[in-house]
Amino acid sequence: MKFLIQRVTHASVETEAKIIGQIGKGFLVFIGISQEDTQEIANKMIRKLLGMRIFEDENGKTNLSLADVSGELLLISQFTLYADCKKGNRPSFIKAGNPALAEKLYDYIISECKKQIPIVQTGSFGADMKISLLNDGPFTIMLDSSEIF
Fold first, then answer.
1. Domain with 26 in it: what CATH number?
2. pLDDT tens by residue, 38-50
3. Cα separation, 68 vs 88, whole angstroms
4. Residue 140: active-site member
5. How many percent of the chain have pLDDT more than 70?
6. What pLDDT, on a 0 to 100 scale, did the predictor assign at position 146?
């Protein structure tokens, strides 16, 4: 599982020219799910995501978590995080989880995050989406379950 986390001052997602999700200060998280991913892995990733201390405290140190700053979440499913570009110029997505598994885990991640963060917005699984954001920092972090667990 991969989470591409961007600290943002605001972000939104639209599909079919309608905004379907938007947040203020918080994290925009692109979520990639592989065929090997499970709810156990998702739980570990969620714990890591929500524990990330990448907001500045009163001394300018990145010492505060999402909850500490009453931050919001925008969660977007993005299978292209599993693009394999080793051969040729056209990426392969064979490492991405099949859509049924990916959607089930994406929905699970959303429901678990909503238990801890009051404002959680989402994209639309499998849809063509347009994402707008103002990256704060810029601050972007990749969490990869194969590297941290």
1. 3.50.80.10
2. 999 999 999 999 9
3. 45
4. no
5. 100
6. 94
